[in-house]
Amino acid sequence: MRLLMHMCCAPCASYPIQKLREEGHEVYGLFYNPNIHPYTEYEKRLEAVKQLEKLYDMPMIYIDEYDLEEFLRRTVYRENIRCQYCYAMRLERAASVAKKGKFDAFTTSLLVSPMQKHDIIKELGKQAGKKFDTKFYYEDFRPYWKNSVERSKELGLYRQQYCGCIYSEKERYLRSEKKRS
């Protein structure tokens, strides 16, 4: 299968790409993450994906649009369900690119993280696929989370400390600050 993988970051993508290739799939990467804050964090993640592209000799599509304002417009006053809007933005773009590029299906590296909301990702992936008349490939990569962590360390990839958005950044560092108090 010719598969487009939306990549939230290089560490999360590192093992699923390897696994999918071993299964015989032709995997292309897609970097589109307008949710990442601050911009310096966005740049670090983008560079790590470029590093993974070279290490894996992998075809990549970059939609290098830092559209933080659109992410915030969609999530402000909806902070408790922000992940749903964030997933939808990225999965819809991935579905659109998959359709235009005539891929057999699209998926996302978000599916490796035990911290992501898989039921929501799966449903939104299916909806995006239906909207753009393409197939969403769902596989629960969570059992390979530790493999992704180990693989990313072996490859020397930048490993972020929070999911990516301004809200998760606050939660991550506010929690750390409270633990020290």
Could you please describe the fold and organization of this structure?
- It is a single chain.
- This protein has helices at about 10-20, 40-55, 70-75, 80-100, 120-130, 145-155, 165-180; strands at about 1-5, 25-30, 60, 105-110.
- With about 180 residues, it is of the alpha/beta class.
- The protein has one domain: HUPs (Rossmann fold), CATH 3.40.50.
- A 4-stranded parallel beta sheet has the order 3-2-1-4, sandwiched between helices.
- α1 packs across α6 (about 145-155) and α4 packs parallel to α5 (about 120-130).
- The mean pLDDT is about 95.
Keywords, please?
181 residues, alpha/beta, Rossmann fold, 7 helices, 4 strands, globular
Strand order of the largest sheet: 3-2-1-4
User: What percentage of amino acids are in beta strands?
Assistant: 5-15%
Tally of strands: 4
CATH fold group: Rossmann fold
CATH class: Alpha Beta
Q: Helix share of residues?
A: 40-55%
**Distance separating the two termini:** 52 Å
Which spans of ≥5 residues are poorly predicted at pLDDT below 50?
Answer: none
The number of helical segments is: 7
Give the overall silhouette: globular
Rg, Å, rounded: 16 Å
The class by helix and strand makeup works out as alpha/beta
Q: Spell out the CATH superfamily.
A: HUPs
Give the topology string: H per helix, E per strand.
Answer: EHEHEHHEHHH
Largest sheet report: 4 strands, parallel
